[in-house]
Amino acid sequence: MKKLLSDRRVAAAVLLLVVLVFTPLGAGRSLKHAVQKVEEQFFTGVDGRGAIADYLSDSANAALGLVTVGAKYGDAAEETGELRADRSFLLDAMEGRDVSAYAEANALVVRSFAALKEKLLSLELSERDAADVDYYVSQFEGAQGAVAHAGYNEAVEEFVADTYERFPASLIASALGIDPPRSFS
Questions:
Q1: What is the pLDDT of residues 36-56, one digit of tens each?
Q2: CA gyration radius for the chain?
Q3: 79 close to 117: Cβ distance less than 8 angstroms
Q4: Is residue 169 packed enough to be buried (19+ CB in 10 Å), middle (13-18) or exposed (0-12)?
């Protein structure tokens, strides 16, 4: 074996093989880590701003409050049930770390929250319930507004444009099947 490796051609071939195999694997591992680091900002925040995951937790809490009010009114039973189910879907998504699942669940909650809000506003509510609806709507809209300004999607877009879509990262991603970070939309 020692004699075989002392042959320059064999040594060059071994070196070439090592470079051709391990360099892309190492680069792929680095790229995958960079993608994960970008996606982690969904849970930790971007540049000192709050994390979307935390704002969605606030949205889920406001939705629970609205469900509690809706449960008191039989005319809002359908909308209350939809928001309750969609909120459960969001809570399930929150147990995983899948940005796409968060986005899908949040879209459902936004839709069903608006439907229950409109239904409750069309009913004659007690003074206390009307105040509670205003409070929960304000909390929900504040959390959703914070989501829109959290900076996560911009961080994803910047990473994709500046790193992921550039050579050699684009070639490595394509060859190794590394997906870009998922945006929250």
A1: 999 999 999 999 899 999 999
A2: 25
A3: no
A4: buried
> Cβ(144)–Cβ(60) under 8 Å?
no
pLDDT tens-digit profile of 119-165?
999 999 999 999 999 999 999 999 999 999 999 999 999 999 999 89
Side-chain-side CA neighbours of residue 40 (13 Å): 7
Which of 63, 46, 87, 91 shows the shortest CA–CA distance to 183? 46
CA angle 64, 51, 92 (to 5 degrees): 45
45, 121, 151, 170 from 41: Cα distances, Å: 5, 37, 9, 22
In whole angstroms, how far apart are CA 172 and each of 19, 70, 103, 169?
Answer: 14, 52, 28, 5
